[in-house]
Every structure is written in structure tokens, then in C-alpha cells.
Amino acid sequence: MNLGNMAIIGAVLLLMLRSLSYGQTLSSAVASISTYSPFLDQINELTAEYLKHEVQSGEEMPTSPVPVTLKDVSFSYSGRDSTLKDVSFQIEGTDLVGIIGPSGSGKSTIAQLVLGLREPTEGCIHVGGTPLPRVDRSWWCRNTAFVPQEPKLITGTIADNIRFFRDGIEDEDIERVANDVNLLDAINALPRGIDTHIGPKGTELSGGQRQRISIARALVTRPRLIVMDEPTSSLDAASEAVVIESLESLKGQTAILLIAHRMSTIAICDKIVVVEHGRVTAVGDHKSLVSTNPYYKNAVRGI
Predict the structure, then answer these.
(1) At what angle do helices 171-180 and 237-250 cross, to 10 degrees?
(2) Which of 26, 38, 124, 282 could form an S-S bond across to 274 if both were Cys, CB 3.0 to 4.6 Å?
(3) Sequence-distant (≥ 6) Cβ neighbours of residue 238 within 8 angstroms
(4) Tens of pLDDT along 88-138?
(5) Residue 40: its H or E element
(6) Nearest-angstrom CA–CA distance, 291 and 112
């Protein structure tokens, strides 16, 4: 066999080996697609369902989202007894309003109603003097923000998490809100500042730091109303204390509706709404409720 034939045979063998490698890669890709196909179908079904039930938007844009006024608001989930009944209270100016009550009393449902994620079965909610259903949805979303119980961070940098896919948010804005939530010094101590990677879903940060980033994310667009649903419930005492300090520093800057069950969190509020069994049983400040409301008094005592 001459050298020319050997070269041809070598080239053919090399092509066959590469083809085998590409074929294995293609086979693996097809298997992955087959595995994830049901999940893709589920996403498509959910997307279609959301589009089919798109929330209707009004056209009015009040001068401000506050005051937020709930008047005789009731709500019930389909086929169930009322979760809320005749709830009335108001969030004004830059008030820090707290909601406290037993588990299952309807606190989170109030948050969803205020945000416009659900509509009252009875009664009405006015924002800036306008019925919420008549308010332009885009305007409402620009002027409100939500902080959940568990911070949902993405794999990326601190800046990525505070910016959260929104255009027009500069590094200066990120540093401003980091300072507002008492996090800037800790960020500046990191190797790359706000561009420091925080690991998968923020795993390299403490619970208190993750929650403060979540609060900074809500603040960065300068909303006029922030709704917080149990922002300290999953934190240890030290982390909770740091987050409470951040919340206190926000008083007077924006209106906040704060849902909590820990007295150490709720006691910083200007006004506290006590909700029991779906009804508002008292509205007042910490000092007055301790002496007038049995549930609140027992909660302070830890009973």
C-alpha cells in the first residue's frame, strides 16, 4: 500500500471518528429535548392561560398612588367562605402601615388586593382618589413595588440583581439604594463592588443581605408605594435587626404597607392594622394597641 492510499484511509477514519462524536452529541441533544419537551408544553399552556386572562387596564393616571383607601372590602376565593370581610383602612403620604394577625387571617390577600393582583368581591379600593380598576396598569406598576417573604435573586452580580433586567438604571442609582438599605459599605468591601458575583441565586450572601438586595431592587425605580409581605419572617434575629434598621431609614421617603407577624418588625410602624378572621379588629399605633387590643397585647407578650 502506497503512502497516498494510507493518507486517504487516515482521513476517512478521522472523518468517521468525528462523525461518531457529532452523532453522540446530536443524540444527547435530542434526548434532552425529549426530556424537557413536557415542561416546554407546560410553559406554553401557562403563557396562553395568562394571555387569555390578561388584567384589564384603565386609562386614568392620578397625581399620586397614595392615599390608598380600602372601603368595606370583602374577598372570597371561588367556592369558599369569605377570606376578608368589610376591611377598611387607609395608607397616606409616606406612612409605614403594618398589618398583623394570626396565620390565615387574610393578610397576604390584602397585599394582593392593594397591588391589584386580585379584585375585591365587594367594596372598593381607591388610589389617589381614583378607583383602582380605572387606573392605567402601566402607570400603577411604575409607581408601586413588591418585596416578597423570600428574596428571589438571580445568578449574577449585585448590580444584575438590583437592576433586574430593567433599562435606564445606572450604577449611581444602584449605589444610592444600596446606601438607603444600609448595604453600601458591605458592597464596597467586596472585591468588585456592585459587580461582584454573588453565586447561584445569591448563595454567597447572608439572609439579611439577600433581603436587603430585594428591598433595594424595589426602591431603585423610586416607587411611591411599596408592599412588603413578611420580609423578616425567615431571618435570624441578627439579620432581622439589620433589615429593620433599613426599614426605619426608609420612613418618610415612601409609603410602605408592611405585613409581619414578629412584634420587633411591626412595632416600628406609624399605624398598625390588626386583622383577625378576615376582619379588621383594630387600627392604631403600637402604644395604643398594647392597651386596647387583646390579640395585639398577647402578641407582644409572646402568648
Answers:
(1) 110
(2) 282
(3) 208
(4) 999 999 999 999 999 999 999 999 999 999 999 999 999 999 999 999 999
(5) helix 3-52
(6) 30
